[in-house]
Amino acid sequence: MSSSDESLPGKVIWARRGFWARFTPEIERAFRRHYEDDLVQRARWSAVIAAAVMAVYSLLDVFMVEPDILPQFLWVRWLFMILPLLCVSSLSYTTWGARHLQKIAAVASVSSALAVVAMIVIARRNGTPIEYEGIILTTFYFYCCGGLRIRWSLLAGSVAAVSYPVAEYFAGLSAHDLAVRSLFLVSTNVVGLISAALMELAARRGFAQLIALETMSNSDPLTGLLNRRALDRRLPALWENARRNGENVQIAMIDVDYFKQYNDHYGHAGGDDVLRELGALLSDKSHNPQDLAARFGGEEFLCIWSTPPDQSAEARLEEILREVRELARLHEKSPLGRLSVSIGAIELRPDPLLAPDAAGALREADALLYRAKSQGRNQAVLSRARAPQARAEKGVFQTLSLGGN
C-alpha cells in the first residue's frame, strides 16, 4: 500500500509498516475482530474438507495397508484426525466455539500431526514403512488452509517438526534419511510461515483499503468530520448506549456567524480554511469513542457527547467559544470584527422506559441555535432537561446563555 494510506482524515492507520505490519491500537482491535470472523469461516470449511480427504485416505488404507496394522491405522486416522476436524467445524457454529475456535483448531491440528507421526512409526515398526510426505502435507495445511493465526499454525508445525524426527529416530530410521527428512520438514515450516505471514499482510492491506473506503464514504472531505450519512447511522447506537448506561447526552449545534459575508469578502478558499479550523477544533473536543462530531451542512456543525451525569456541558461550550475567539481570525463584515460562532445545545438523559427520540433532540438543539443567533450571536444557549422524560415544552427546560465576548 502506498504511503498515502499512512493516515486518513482523522484516523492514523499504520503503527508499523513492512512484512510484520501492525495497525494503531484502535484499528488493530477492529482488524482482529474482522480477521477472526474470516478465520472462523475458513477454519469451518477447511476442517470439513480435510476430514473428507482423510476419510478417502481411510478407504485407501483398506486396500494399501497391511492387514496386521490396518485396525491401528483406522483407529488413529478416525479418532485423532477426522473426529477432531469435525469437532472444529461443529463447534464453530456455537457462540463458545466461535470465540475459542483458534485454540480448538490448534488442538485439532496438533492431534492430526501426531496422528500422522504415529501412523508412520506404526508402519515402520511393522516392517512396511510408508512415505513420510504425509507430514509435509499436514504441515502445509496448518499454515495455508486451516484458518489458523500465525502463532497457532507455528505451534502445530513445530510439534510436527520435533515429534517426527524424534519418533523416526527411536523407530530406527537411518541417520542419513533422518537428516534429509528433517531438513525438508523444517524447510516446509519456514515456507509455510512465510506464506501465512504474507496472507495476513494481504488481509491487512485489504482491511486498510476497506477502512479507507468507509472513511471516505462517511467523512466530510473538507473537514474530515463525519458527514450527515454517517451521523444518521451512528446516532441511534450512541443514543441506545447512553440509555443503557444511564449517561447524559449533550447535543450542540454550532454555526459560523455571518459566514456568507465572510465567504463573499475573503473568498471561498478563506471560507474553507475557517471550516477546516473549526472542524479540527470540534474533533479535538469529541475524542472519546462515544462522541460524534459531524458537519451537518454548509457552515453548520453538530457535536454529540455521551457523558457521566456529573459532567455538565457548560465548560465544554465555553471552551469552544474561547478557542474560536483565540483563533483571532479577522472578519471585517461581522459586528465583532472577528470570527465567532453561535451554539444551540441541549443536555438530557434518555429515558430507558420511553422510545428514543434522537431526531426530536436534534430539532431542539437547532431551535436553540436560532435563539442564540437572534439574541446577538457569539454565544451558546443551553437547555437542560429537569427530568429524563422531559420534552421541549414551555417551562420544562432551564436555559443558560454563555457569552463569547
Descriptive overview:
This protein starts with 6 loop residues before the first strand and ends with a strand. The chain is elongated and about 100 Å long. A six-stranded mixed sheet has the order 6-7-5-8-9-10, with helices on both faces. The chain has a two-stranded antiparallel sheet with strand order 1-2. It has eleven helices and ten strands. The longest helix has 44 residues, at 175-218. The model is unreliable at 1-10 and 386-398 (pLDDT under 50). The chain has helices at 25-64, 70-91, 95-99, 101-125, 133-145, 150-171, 175-218, 228-245, 259-284, 314-326, 358-374, and strands spanning 7-8, 11-12, 14-16, 22-23, 248-256, 292-297, 300-307, 341-348, 379-385, 397-403. The protein is an alpha+beta fold.
Tags for this entry?
elongated; 405 residues; single chain; 2 domains; two-stranded antiparallel ribbon; disordered N terminus; Nucleotide_cyclase; alpha+beta; Alpha-Beta Plaits; 11 helices; EC 2.7.7.65
Strand order of the largest sheet: 6-7-5-8-9-10
Class derived from helix and strand content: alpha+beta
* % residues in beta strands: 5-15%
Question: What is the element string, with H for helices and E for strands?
Answer: EEEEHHHHHHHHEHEEHEHEE
Helix content: 55-70%
Unreliably modeled segments: 1-10, 386-398
Catalytic activity: 2 GTP = 3',3'-c-di-GMP + 2 diphosphate
GO molecular function: diguanylate cyclase activity
Organism: Falsigemmobacter faecalis
Keywords: Membrane, Transmembrane, Transmembrane helix
